[in-house]
Amino acid sequence: MSNVPSDLKFAKSHEWVRVSGDTATIGITDHAQAELTDIVFVELPAVGRKVKAGEACAVVESVKTASDIYSPVSGEITEVNKNVVDNPSLVNSEPDSNGWFYKIKLSNAAEVNSLLSPDDYKKQIGG
């Protein structure tokens, strides 16, 4: 079982959220990157785009498949991680740190409360 960081919240669709003030950083979980295998391409949303919780807003492609990435929270994209575009393998090697996808200014901070805790996410993935 992979280590699930305790400072994160999780969407059932395998995205993680790390909140700092009114900004959330979003990425995909270690479990998700392991299921996808070698990630070869990442497409991120445009800075300034407004997204709703549950909306597809990014894409990852692995040697196996392409997968939509859903925003776990609503808000405006304030920053994207160009490092994962230039080096998609960061998503595999550092999924819950340097392999983050984008930052979002929360429009409804209460949405974070509906996300899974680390323990609940571990249960979902059979941990």
How would you explain this protein's 3D organization?
The protein has a single domain (9-114), classed as Beta Barrel (OB fold (Dihydrolipoamide Acetyltransferase, E2P)), CATH 2.40.50.100. Helices cover 19% and strands 35% of the residues. The chain is built from 4 helices and 9 strands; from the N terminus they run βββαβββββααβα. The chain has helices at 30-36, 82-86, 89-93, 118-124, and strands at 9-10, 15-20, 23-28, 39-43, 50-51, 56-62, 66-70, 75-80, 102-106. Strands 1-2-3-9-8-5 form a 6-stranded antiparallel sheet. A 3-stranded antiparallel sheet has the order 4-6-7. A hairpin with a 3-residue loop joins β6 (56-62) and β7.
Please supply descriptive tags for the structure shown above:
127 residues; alpha+beta; OB fold (Dihydrolipoamide Acetyltransferase, E2P); six-stranded antiparallel sheet; 4 helices; 19% helix; globular
